[in-house]
């Protein structure tokens, strides 16, 4: 748009300023907006913003007013009458006076504005601020149905670009959602089926197989925090064999059921500790072996991530406990062997030795190698001789 000289405009506007006509014009504008703005809404807007405020939308009223719907971080929507379509308007604010108009050009909403400075010529600055929001299908058709390559626009801002068969997304295509999520891959009968890549707005990425819109088959999931899973999927959940590598260096290799470690698996911590055994619902439950980085080792039962049941803990120092466990502690019957040969065998509670068990039911709280004879099982040879003697005596 060419520059304009508004000398005549300014001379005539002096009388406007004197009689407050500009205030009247503003009030008329406000009245017009109040009468027509109810025709528009955020969801019914015809143009989406191409400015840095990408969630904003623009609506053109029946009397050709341009209404902006701006979304704040709080989620609140603010309505703003920006000006007239195809008509120059004088506007002012605390910073400047300017002429403003809007136009529709090739399905784009264009803003023209020129700043008024004294009596100098005013040159309009052109900025494309919005693009037409299309609804429905645009592309190749056969017998009135989408067949071939085409694009479908949803009212909420979602968009699919790709291949169609009998009005359904079938073949290769890209589905971009208004929330920022994006899928690129194969489709069958309007559903993601085959190979594809799904990128979420939070940064998570899945690359792999889909069946009926769900992650099913083999695939790799990358979390935005650096974690990574490679393995099998069923109905959007990790199920089957898989490997999870955490950002901190921890690693699990084994079975999954419904997104949880269940079955057989090996968990290796970044510090070198390692567990090999059974899992149920993401917890060590069943038989397992835990080897610490320093060489200590436990072999036995687990319940809900704790040593519970029967098990043996062997220290690299030579200490060894074999017996019953409850919630990770010696509890029940057990035998603790010290490197110097000392032995504590009997009843344990909450990691504390309670009493020894011997033939005389002694109340001694400790037993050493010197009184092991009390805990030794009877000699089978002597028992056999005693039984034979009894038979001779009575028969």
Short description:
This protein is mainly beta and 395 residues long. 11% of the residues lie in helices and 52% in strands.
Features:
395 residues; mainly beta; Histone H3 K4-specific methyltransferase SET7/9 N-terminal domain; 2 domains; 52% strand; disordered C terminus
What does this protein look like?
The chain is mostly beta strands. It folds into two domains: 7-132, no CATH class; 136-380, Histone H3 K4-specific methyltransferase SET7/9 N-terminal domain (Single Sheet), CATH 2.20.110. The chain is 11% helix and 52% strand. The chain is built from three helices and 28 strands. The chain has helices at residues 7-19, 21-36, 380-394; strands spanning 47-49, 57-60, 65-71, 77-84, 89-92, 97-105, 108-115, 125-132, 136-142, 145-153, 159-165, 168-176, 182-188, 191-199, 205-211, 214-222, 228-234, 237-245, 251-257, 260-268, 274-280, 283-291, 297-303, 306-314, 320-326, 329-337, 343-349, 352-356. The strands form two sheets. The chain has a 20-stranded antiparallel beta sheet, with no helix packed on it. Strand 13 (182-188) and strand 14 form a beta hairpin. The longest helix has 16 residues, at 21-36. Mean pLDDT is 83; it is low at 1-38 and 359-395.
Output the number of helix runs: 3
Measure the end-to-end span: 132 Å
The structural domain count equals: 2
What integer is the average pLDDT? 83
Radius of gyration, whole Å: 40 Å
Tell me about the biggest sheet? 20 strands, antiparallel
Q: Supply the CATH architecture of the largest domain.
A: Single Sheet
| CATH overall fold name of the largest domain | Histone H3 K4-specific methyltransferase SET7/9 N-terminal domain
Helix amount: 10-25%
Give the uncertain stretches in residue-range form.
1-38, 359-395
Q: Estimate the strand proportion.
A: over 45%
Number of strands: 28
Structural class, from helix and strand content? mainly beta
- What is the molecular shape? elongated
Name of the level-1 CATH class of the largest domain = Mainly Beta
Superfamily (CATH H level) name of the largest domain: Histone H3 K4-specific methyltransferase SET7/9 N-terminal domain
């Amino acid at each position: 748009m060419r520059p304009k000289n508004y000398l005549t405009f300014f001379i005539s506007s002096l009388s406007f300023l004197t009689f407050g006509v500009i205030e009247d014009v503003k009030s008329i504008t406000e009245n017009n907006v109040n009468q027509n703005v109810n025709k528009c809404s955020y969801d019914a807007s015809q143009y989406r913003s191409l400015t840095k405020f990408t969630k904003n939308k623009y609506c053109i009223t029946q009397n050709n007013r341009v209404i902006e719907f701006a979304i704040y971080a709080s989620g609140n929507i603010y309505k703003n009458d920006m000006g007239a379509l195809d008509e120059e308007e004088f506007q002012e604010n605390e910073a400047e006076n300017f002429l403003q108009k809007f136009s529709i050009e090739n399905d784009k909403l264009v803003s023209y504005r020129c700043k008024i400075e004294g009596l100098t010529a005013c040159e309009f600055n052109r900025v494309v601020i919005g693009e037409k929001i299309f609804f429905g299908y645009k592309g190749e058709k056969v017998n009135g149905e989408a067949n071939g390559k085409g694009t479908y626009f949803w009212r909420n801002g979602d968009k699919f670009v790709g291949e169609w068969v009998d009005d359904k997304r079938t073949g290769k295509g890209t589905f971009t959602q208004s929330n920022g999520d994006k899928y690129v891959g194969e489709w069958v009968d309007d559903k993601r089926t085959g190979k594809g890549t799904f990128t979420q707005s939070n940064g998570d990425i899945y690359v792999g197989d889909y069946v009926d819109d769900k992650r099913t088959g083999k695939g790799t999931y990358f979390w935005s925090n650096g974690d990574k899973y490679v393995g099998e999927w069923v109905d959007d959940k990790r199920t089957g064999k898989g490997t999870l590598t955490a950002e901190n260096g921890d690693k699990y290799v084994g079975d999954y059921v419904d997104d949880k470690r269940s079955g057989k698996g090996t968990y290796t911590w970044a510090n070198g500790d390692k567990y090999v055994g059974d899992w149920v619902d993401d917890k060590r439950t069943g038989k397992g072996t835990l080897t610490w980085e320093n060489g200590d080792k436990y072999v036995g039962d687990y319940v809900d991530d704790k040593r519970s049941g029967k098990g043996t803990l062997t220290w690299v120092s030579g200490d060894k406990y074999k017996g019953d466990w409850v919630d990770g502690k010696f509890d029940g019957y057990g035998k603790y062997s010290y490197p110097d040969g000392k032995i504590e065998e009997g009843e344990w509670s909450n990691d504390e030795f309670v009493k020894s068990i011997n033939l005389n039911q002694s109340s001694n709280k400790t037993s050493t190698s010197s009184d092991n004879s009390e805990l030794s099982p009877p000699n089978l040879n002597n028992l056999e001789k005693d039984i034979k003697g009894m038979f001779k005596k009575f028969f």
